[in-house]
Amino acid sequence: MLKIKNLHASIDDNGVLKSILKGINLEIKAGEVHAIMGPNGSGKSTLASVVAGKEEFEVTKGTVLFNDEDIEDLAAEERAHKGIFLSFQYPVEIPGVSVTNFMKTAINETRKAKGLEEMPAKEMLKLIREKSELLEIDRKFLSRSLNEGFSGGEKKRNEIFQMAMLEPKLAILDETDSGLDIDALRIVANGVNKLKSKDNAVLVITHYQRLLEYIVPDFVHVLLDGRIVKSGGKELAHELEEKGYDWIKEEVNA
Amino acid sequence: MDLKEKLLSSFLVFENQLEDDAYMNDVRNDAITAFEEKGFPTKKEEAWKYTSLNSVLKEDYSIFPKQENAIEFNDIKKYFIHDIDSYKIVFIDGKYSSHLSQTTHDGMDICLMSAAMSKPKYRLHIENYFNKVATKDSLPSLNTAFSSEGAYIHIPKNKMVAKPIQILHFSTGNESAIMLQPRNLIVIDENSHVQIIERHQSLSNNAVLTNSVTEIFANKRAIVDYYKIQNDNLNASLIDNTFINQKRESVASVHTFAFGGKLVRNNLNFYQNGERIDSTLKGITIIGDKQHVDHNTLVHHIEPNCESHQDYKGIFGENSTGVFNGKIIVNKEAQKTNAFQANNNILVSDKATINTKPQLEIFADDVKCSHGCTIGQLDETAMFYMRTRGIPEKEAKALLMYAFSNNVLSSVKIPEIKQRITKIIANKLGVNMGFDL
Ligand SMILES: Nc1ncnc2c1ncn2[C@@H]1O[C@H](COP(=O)(O)OP(=O)(O)OP(=O)(O)O)[C@@H](O)[C@H]1O
Ligand SMILES: [Mg+2]
């Protein structure tokens, strides 16, 4: 589904081109769950943003294929229409736009891009009700301005609600677990698992093994200074949590 | 001949046609003298520093239309808020159009200035109110000198006017360039409530300059909601001079939806002559091209325990320019005043400019006064966030801008106006909003 080959990406940091991703290789197939772990600043969110189409990052080398199509020239919204979803590490507040109106717009724009009619209001309401129940989101919440004044945990839960509404093919969850208490974590993980199927895939970015107890990965990758330096099964996550990253750094330097 | 000279000589002609009315003639003569002395304002004056009238004054305007023009309702229906039942006072090239209007004398007067000026039964009222709150500045004076037509509204006490009143001024373009000077007088007596919608609309590409004066008297406990919809052609310029005199416990609000014309200057003045008065001034400005919109507000707090709320949002694209100059005066006696002012702007083009300036003159010591102005760009992170949800760039921009101006719309009490303004905003931003508001 997603094939990343030798991906290099930089950002203009006050006039200086700063290289962040330095040759990423990653393949995610339909039906799989992958996890990426790595120290702060290693480039995890950057990788997620580049895949989602953030234009501030310049891809200097390599390719990103989504269902065998090179998506380099696609805008973020076009990638979304093709089924890529990013749950933000830091969801953005949009004052003045309610959660409901935001979702209506997102769904109808996606349908429009696919040549479909707008979703009938009744159907939309039903979908919203169903998905908000799945994530145990209070209905009152939906009429509030998107993310404005939401607690950290509420924001994350709202991200997964959006994911549930949009039913993406590839969901990238960037530290969705941070800020969630144990009950919320279970609800969010449960939501993600309900949406899992053999036709879609999930990429989880996290620092903790905790979430991976619920969303069990098929592969765990370690991102260090812009490169994936080690991959393994779910037991690698345990090892990282116990031992930290130094032993991997040593392995890399050796 | 420049416009000033043309106006001065036209006044002599105008004066000769007037009926013998010593009172009004004195008022007019004083006014033309004031205009003659002051002339049109120039950028040298502090209040006009960022707005030059030069490009507007150079046209060769007809001061009086040569003929009476008629238009069909169907051709102009879209300029009304037509899905509500309302009183209508309609002018075409400055002349009253009875067949497009719907006025009343039933328990209240919703009619014409020309009638009020000429009929004896209105005389006392005219002498009590006409030109009593308008300032003697050059443009209001010019209007006073030529004043002959406009809306005259008098609501006696304890009346809820059930239907909003729409005042519409059309210019047909049958003259190559025309100058219009409508004059409105609105008196709302004790404990009465009225809603008014005003619009100026050019129907062709010929130049129009409107120098309008509206005097509003909100007497004790009166409630006045006034909506100005400005969305004119690029050949049409408007100088709107509105003066509101409030008596104790009255509540007055003016919403100005400024989608521009060529040049628009809104001189909006509130005078709080009594205790426990509430004044609201709100505006949304969305312009592009080379449009210019200038909001020049004054709230004069004269007595204690009053409030004023100002909230102006502006979105400026292409080569447009905006000005916000908000003055608040709090007299020494006006203790416990609460005065708020906010002016927030987004520049969507690097060629657009906004000049924003609060002016506070506070002479009382026990007051709450807050003001703030911001100028920013659209939030890139928010844009990216929305786009990852499948909302295209243009729609994402529109949604952000709509959200930005939403605050101002939330205080609009007539849903049909809200819908109309939302439509205009969507139209301006070139999108179809995918949800109901
Ligand atoms: N807009 C930017 N301008 C300059 N530097 C940036 C920008 N965005 C990211 N970086 C830098 O790129 C590097 C990688 O950042 P990134 O956010 O991808 O890290 P991360 O692995 O997600 O870290 P964390 O675990 O803290 O979330 C960091 O050094 C960061 O400072
Ligand atoms: Mg990160």
UniProtKB/TrEMBL annotation, chain A:
Signal peptide residue numbers: none
Cross-referenced Gene3D superfamilies: P-loop containing nucleotide triphosphate hydrolases
Domain (ABC transporter) ranges: 2-250
Keywords associated with the record: ATP-binding, Nucleotide-binding
GO MF entry, a single one: ATP binding
Listed InterPro entries: AAA+_ATPase (IPR003593), ABC_transporter-like_ATP-bd (IPR003439), FeS-cluster_ATPase_SufC (IPR010230), P-loop_NTPase (IPR027417)
Record-stated family: Belongs to the ABC transporter superfamily. Ycf16 family.
NCBIfam families recorded: sufC (TIGR01978)
Name of the protein described by the UniProt record: Fe-S cluster assembly ATPase SufC
Organism per entry: Confluentibacter flavum
Automatic annotation (TrEMBL), chain B:
InterPro entries cross-referenced by the UniProt entry: Fe-S_cluster_assembly_SufBD, SUF_FeS_clus_asmbl_SufBD_core, SUF_FeS_clus_asmbl_SufBD_sf, SUF_FeS_clus_asmbl_SufD, SufBD_N
Domain of life of the source: Bacteria
GO biological process: iron-sulfur cluster assembly
Residue intervals of the SUF system FeS cluster assembly SufBD core domain: 174-404
Domain SUF system FeS cluster assembly SufBD N-terminal: 19-167
Family of this protein: Belongs to the iron-sulfur cluster assembly SufBD family.
Protein name: Fe-S cluster assembly protein SufD
Origin species: Confluentibacter flavum
